[in-house]
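User: quick one, fold this
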Amino acid sequence: MHKAVVDRPTAVNKTAFYQSCRLVQQWLREMQNAWMTHKAEQIQRYAERSEWKNIFAATKAVYEHPIKGATGLISADGRTLLTERTQILTRWVEHF
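Assistant:
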């Protein structure tokens, strides 16, 4: 979709791109909200049973910074997920 907007920036392409971005952002917010709700319920159950070790572990999962590292990248054909650093770097070279 992004490639279509860059290659041919028509009003239709831009509208479709921004609508898809909006839907992806909405989907992401819904997923984050569901995860946070699940964690809150989990922490509440631990609190009701006075499982302090589990309370702290679950709270840490919510508030701790995520582990930094390379995530996967889709190959040029769109069929393969590249996970190794050398593959990802090679794909970035192809892209730019």
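User: anything notable?
Assistant: The chain has two domains: 2-64, 69-96.
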